[in-house]
Amino acid sequence: MFLSSKNRWLFIALVCFLPLIVILLDIANNNLGADPIQTLHIRLGDWSLRFLWLTLTITPLQTITKWRKMADYRQMLGMVAFFYASLHVLVYILVDHGLDWHLIAIDILESPYIWLGVLAYSIIFALAISSPKFGKKLLGKNWKKLHRFIYLAAIAAIIHYYWQLKGNMAEPLFYLILIFLLFGFRIAVWIKNRQLHKMMIPSTRKIRVKTVQRPLEVKKTTAPSKSIQHELVIEEVDEQ
Amino acid sequence: MIIKTHKDIPSSDITDPLIFKQRRQIIKAMMGSLAAGAAGVSASSALAETKSVWTDLPKANVPAESLIATPADIVKNHTNYYEFTFNKTDATQLAQRLPTDPWSVEISGEVEKPAVYHLEDILSQQSLQEYIYRFRCVEAWSMVVPWIGFPLMNLLKIAKPLSSAQFVQFTSIYDPKTMPNQRDNAMLEWPYVEGLRIDEAMHPLTILAAGMYGERMPKQNGAPLRLVVPWKYGFKSIKAIVKIELVKKPPVTTWNKFAPNDYGFYSNVNPEVPHPRWSQNSERQLGSGFFTPRRKTELFNGYGSQVASLYSDMDLRHFF
Prior knowledge:
The complex is a heterodimer. By secondary structure, chain A is mostly helical. Chain A has helices at residues 5-28, 36-65, 71-96, 101-110, 112-129, 133-139, 141-147, 150-163, 170-200, and strands at residues 206-215, 228-237. The radius of gyration of chain A is 29 Å and the shape is globular. The model of chain A is unreliable at 236-240 (pLDDT under 50). Chain B contains 10 helices and 12 strands. Chain B starts with 17 loop residues before the first helix and ends in a 13-residue tail after the last helix. At the A-B interface, helix 1, helix 2, helix 4 and helix 5 of A face helix 3 of B.
């Protein structure tokens, strides 16, 4: 690429925060339209979704282009998605509801679309705090399992988007198609891997265990014994 | 980030127009306790700048408490006019294509005198008044709008409804040439249809509006003639009416047909009956500052003392 590695990081970081800068300028210039809080909800939620989708795109892109370096950016993009989601939640709690927990409780209880938002954010929150290296170390094998929940978060987020609409579905439809493509890709890879697996590894070996009874060889010095030595014989069986 | 905070006028249930309020605060600071009168002064001077066709209209005798109108700019640029667009700001421009002059309204069905009226004839027969009403959208935002209009009942009486007339069905204009979503058959079934029970239609709070903020109705807000039923969600207040039919059976209304579990025939504002996917417990008041608290939504949008008796024997959860 045209930039050195360090500059590339800086460039990507700047691009990630550009939407926030635009939003802040619009707030300062009172440029958010007739329902500014709703505009903030939608803009922050949209950017969170977009970065979540970018995060999910990295692995397929990597598989297709064989450009391994991209994985380095995956964590960063995920954190940016988490950042915008957090702002989205903060605007809901602090600005829209002015920290009125009673109002918030009723709103959440009565709004199924928010249940899915809460689910998506809880997952992304857990992923974000377990994202640094020490989280990886701490969780070991479970880390990967935990981070697969990003797919559940993505589905919950898209339904969250759908359900707050009165009816028009155009933009979420775009996201939905995207997520089906991403899922489709992963399923295709999974099926392909399974087939490869079948072809390359010989069929599993079955082991039959027999016990054979044989009289103990009697040592000359000792009295004959009735004890029997059990010898294990392991036979490999080719199962065809 | 610039965060504008300001103290509310004591009454908690008014939409505070930010701009007017800031002016008022300056005046307050300068003149001390003249605040009460200042609201009227600044509002009328702002109106004088625009072309007003109806000045000094009498205020209708409707409950208005201390309602302060939302800044006109917001009301004119935040509309759900799905015939043109699903976007609330774009309708402002797109709707300008709709020809609204001349305009006629057909009144038919279960009436003694079915007729087609020119809009100008209707308006010249009616004494127009200003009605300052809360307007609560099913999407949980609200505004306060000074409509100019007359009670629907006054028009219906001219047509003389028969005793068989149990409901009133309203139909919007069908003009696919100027309305893109009608041309594309997008989403809803066109033309837009709404309906009221006859007693709701004859209620003095139910009006037909031909203007707002002292002016002719802007096209994006439903010109030249729209319904306003202040105790129901906004989508009941149908725009650009061309036909009013008195009918025996409940009309099949547009949103109800589109999603019967989401949007009922009555659609009375009710904080206790949530939409299947979101709460109706509170509302964002447009035109208020970033940190102005949400307004607790009131049953019948605050018009309960006038209209609750219409529904006294009904389970409002069932007839939502």
